[in-house]
Amino acid sequence: MMVSCRRAFVLYHCFFLWSLGWSSAQQDETHLKSVTDLYNEASSHLASDNWSYSCSESSEGPDHWADLDPRWAVCKSGRMQSPIDVHKYELEEDLELGMLPLTYDNAPEYSNATITNDGRTIKVIRGGGSLIIKGVNYSLAYVDFHSPSEHTINGVDGRSVLPANLAVLVKLIFRFMLRFPLEMQVFHVSPEGANAIIVAVFEYGEAENPVLEQVTSQLGKLKKNQALAGVPVNIYSKPTDTHHYYQYGGSLTTPPCTEGVIWTIVSTIYKVSPIQLALFRVALEGSNSRPVQALNERKVSVSAF
Ligand SMILES: *[C@@H]1O[C@H](CO)[C@@H](O)[C@H](O)[C@H]1NC(C)=O
Ligand SMILES: *[C@@H]1O[C@H](CO)[C@@H](O)[C@H](O)[C@H]1NC(C)=O
Ligand SMILES: *[C@@H]1O[C@H](CO)[C@@H](O)[C@H](O)[C@H]1NC(C)=O
């Protein structure tokens, strides 16, 4: 049963556009560098390389990350893991949360990005940004993409009302339908190495999203384990609304699942066209979302609307 879930989704969302993604692929060798040159030196926080998102009974999938490497134990034992479902009943209004103090500089020397495909995510590495949270200045490190979304907002919660085995079935069937098609995570890092991540989630829209287009237009040239340098990628300082957002303390959503990450989820829901989404899905060769984690004792803060 679980083996088929990933395949079914890939077929459903990608098959009809599969040839489109590959036929538009054109090699541009002058800009291609190996990931060992660019990706590793720029941003790798991976201790080892044997984990996956497989939703089969695979021993490398999200339920087994902690078993793959002792340094990843917190993936299982942690009480502040990410992603989560941001649910209206768990929110706590926080009057201290004002407009997000973030600045992105799109001068050519900063917007000059390197885009990598490491087989698990598409990463856009560039500098020129800062985000201040509780007096700590986090600088922009990179942006990455997950499909379907990792975080959910008011996700349908079958856990409490359904018998356990029925709830498992519902979660399997709706594994993808209960999520947004795409999540963008903007990683910032403090001088001490702590992460603050801003999340935007996307739903389907007819028109191509011009911000995402800067990345999707490059995906045909970017095969697995390749990097593309010198791509201008502008990030806008003022998302539609920097007043309305959710904030909580969580973890990295990939091994080593380190906690102490400040997550900020912008409440505006953006649009991605079906073709843009298909380009991500083809490049990623499937889903790359960790299942939603228990909230435990945490509260999610919401900026005062
Ligand atoms: C995963 O990789 C790490 C380091 O590369 C290694 O120590 C560990 O034994 C591997 N685990 C499995 C289950 O292969
Ligand atoms: C952008 O990056 C490329 C490759 O890293 C480099 O050759 C080029 O000079 C950079 N351009 C600017 C404006 O910084
Ligand atoms: C935060 O750090 C950036 C450099 O990363 C700097 O340009 C900016 O002025 C700093 N902001 C504050 C408020 O200190």
Would you give an account of this structure?
It is a single chain. The strands form 2 sheets. Strands 1, 3, 4, 5, 6, 7, 8, 10, 11, 12, 13, 14 and 15 form a 13-stranded mixed beta sheet that branches. This protein has a two-stranded parallel ribbon with strand order 2-9. Residues 1-31, 41-47 and 157-162 have low confidence and may be disordered. It starts with a helix and ends with a strand. The radius of gyration is 19 Å and the shape is globular. It is of the alpha+beta class and 305 residues long. Strand 13 and strand 14 form a beta hairpin. Helices cover 24% and strands 30% of the residues. The chain has helices spanning 2-23, 35-43, 65-68, 74-77, 108-111, 164-173, 210-219, 274-284; strands spanning 32-34, 85-86, 91-94, 102-104, 112-117, 122-125, 129-133, 136-146, 152-153, 182-189, 195-204, 226-232, 245-251, 259-272, 300-303. The chain has 8 helices and 15 strands. It has one domain (2-303): Alpha carbonic anhydrase (Carbonic Anhydrase II), CATH 3.10.200.10. The structure holds 2-acetamido-2-deoxy-beta-D-glucopyranose (3 copies). One 2-acetamido-2-deoxy-beta-D-glucopyranose binds next to loops.
